[in-house]
Design brief:
Layout lengths: L16 E5 L13 H10 L15 H11 L4 H13 L7 E2 L7 H7 L1 E2 L1 H14 L4 E6 L4 E5 L2 E5 L3 E6 L2 E5 L12 E4 L1 H18 L3 H14 L4 H13 L3 H14 L4 H13 L3 H9 L8 H13 L3 H14 L5 H12 L3 H14 L4 H10 L5
Parallel strand pairs: 2-3
Antiparallel strand pairs: 1-8, 4-7, 4-9, 5-6, 7-8
Helix pairs in contact: 2-5, 4-5, 6-7, 6-8, 7-8, 8-9, 8-10, 9-10, 10-11, 10-12, 11-12, 12-13, 13-14, 14-15, 15-16
C-alpha cells in the first residue's frame, strides 16, 4: 500500500476515475528523473542507487504495450482506455493481490501485484507513451493493521493526471470502500519510499527483521518526513530488541504527528513492555480521541487490563468491535478479558465469533483449546 498499507472488506472490482478541481498541492519537482539524476539524488540521501529500485522505470516492451492499451483519443480518454484494459483479463491478465509490492517492471513481467504495484504499473505505462501521470496520496488518513501487540501503519496511493485546475484520479485498490475525494501529489522519491515501506511491512509480517529494518531505514532516508515509515520502523526495531532505536523512531514520528493515535498507541505498548505504566498512560492521553482507530482502543483496553480494570478494558474492546465489526482482534481481546474475570462461556462465544471472521486465527484456536475442559 498503502499497508502502510494501513485493508477493507472485498467489493466488486470496478473502474475508478474521479475528476476534481483544486484538490492538490503544488507538484513537487523530483519527477521523471533520468538514470543519472536518480542516482545523484539517492547518493545525496545516503543511499546506493544499486540498492534502491525505481518503482516507475519502464522497458521498450512496456512502451509498446502502453501504446496498444491506451489506443487513441484525448489524454484523459487514453488514460481511461489504459485503466480499462488493465482491468480486462482478456487483454491484460493480472492477478490482484492484497499483499506483495512489486516495481512496475516486475508487475508487468509477472502480471501480479497489490494496489501500489498496480498503480506504479499504470503510471509507468502512461509515462512510457509521453503522458505525465503522477502519484498522489488520498486526502483521508492512512489505516493500520494489528500485528500481535502492535499496529503497523500504511499509506494508500493513487495515480493522477493534472490538466490545469483539474485532476483525473485513478484508484487501483480493488478492495477499497472509501471513495477518494481529494489527493496530494507526491514526487517519485516519495513513491519509492512508499514502495520500500510496503516491502518493509511485508518482511515484518514474515518475521524477517533484518530485511524489514533495511527497507524501512531506506524509506525514511528517501522521505525524511514520512511519518508512517518511522512508525513502522519503531515496530521493527522493537521486535528486533532495539528498544532505544524504537523510542527514537516513535519520537521522530511524533515530531511530525504529535497526536496521532496509531503512533501513540504503539508507543504506549512499548512503554508497557518496559514496565513503564505511567508513561504508557500518558502517551494514550495525548492522542486525538475522535479519530482513534479500533487498534488504539484495543491498546487502551490492554493498558486497563494491566491496571486490573477488566470492565473498563471490555468496554474499550467493545467500542473497537463496533468501529470494525469485520475484525476478529477485538473479539479475541474480549475473550481474554472474559477469561480473566472467570466467564468462560462468554469467552467461548467471543472466540467462536472471531473464528467465523477468520477461521485460520491461531490465537483464537489456542484460546479455545485452553477453554476445553473448563466448566461452563
Amino acid at each position: 500500500m498503502g499497508r502502510g498499507r494501513i485493508w477493507w472488506e472485498p467489493v466488486a472490482a470496478s473502474l475508478s476515475l474521479v475528476i476534481l478541481a483544486g484538490c492538490a498541492a503544488r507538484a513537487p519537482g523530483l519527477v521523471n528523473l533520468s538514470t543519472e539524476e536518480w542516482g545523484r539524488v539517492l547518493r545525496q540521501r545516503g543511499l546506493e542507487p544499486a540498492a534502491v529500485a525505481d518503482p516507475l522505470a519502464y522497458t521498450p516492451a512496456m512502451r509498446a504495450s502502453g501504446a496498444d492499451l491506451a489506443d487513441s483519443g484525448s489524454v484523459v480518454e487514453r488514460l481511461e482506455n489504459l485503466q480499462r484494459a488493465l482491468f480486462d483479463k482478456g487483454r491484460f491478465p493480472f492477478t490482484y493481490e492484497t499483499r506483495g509490492t512489486l516495481t512496475a517492471q516486475e508487475a508487468f513481467q509477472q502480471r501480479r501485484g497489490n494496489c501500489l504495484s498496480f498503480t506504479s504499473l499504470f503510471i509507468s505505462l502512461a509515462r512510457s507513451i509521453g503522458i505525465e501521470v503522477r502519484a498522489a496520496v488520498p486526502a483521508y488518513a492512512g489505516g493500520g493493521e494489528r500485528e500481535g501487540d502492535l499496529v503497523v501503519v500504511n499509506t494508500h496511493v493513487v495515480a493522477v493526471y493534472r490538466a490545469g485546475d483539474f485532476l483525473a484520479i485513478f484508484d487501483f485498490d480493488r478492495t477499497r470502500q472509501q471513495p477518494v475525494v481529494g489527493a496530494r501529489l507526491i514526487d517519485d522519491l516519495r513513491l519509492a519510499a512508499l514502495h520500500a515501506n510496503n516491502l518493509g511491512v511485508d518482511e515484518l509480517r514474515e518475521g524477517r527483521l533484518e530485511a524489514a529494518l533495511r527497507y524501512l531505514e531506506t524509506a525514511v532516508k528517501l522521505a525524511p518526513d514520512f511519518t508512517d515509515a518511522y512508525a513502522n520502523l519503531g515496530v521493527a526495531r522493537r521486535r528486533a530488541g532495539d528498544i532505544p532505536g524504537a523510542f527514537e523512531a516513535y519520537r521522530a514520528a511524533l515530531l511530525m504527528a504529535p497526536r496521532d493515535s496509531r503512533i501513540l498507541g504503539n508507543l504506549a505498548t512499548l512503554y508497557q513492555t518496559q514496565g513503564q505504566q505511567r508513561e504508557a498512560r500518558t502517551a494514550l492521553l495525548q492522542a486525538d480521541i475522535a479519530p482513534a482507530s479500533p487498534y488504539f482502543l484495543m491498546v487502551r483496553g490492554d493498558l486497563e487490563m494491566t491496571q486490573g480494570n477488566v470492565e473498563g478494558a471490555i468496554a474499550l474492546y467493545r467500542r473497537a468491535r463496533s468501529l470494525a465489526p469485520q475484525l476478529p482482534a477485538p473479539l479475541i481481546c474480549i475473550a481474554q478479558a472474559e477469561m480473566a474475570r472467570g466467564r468462560p462461556r462468554a469467552a467461548r462465544r467471543a472466540l467462536q465469533r472471531a473464528l467465523k471472521l477468520d477461521p485460520g486465527s491461531e490465537e483464537a484456536r489456542s484460546l479455545l483449546g485452553r477453554l476445553d475442559g473448563v466448566a461452563l
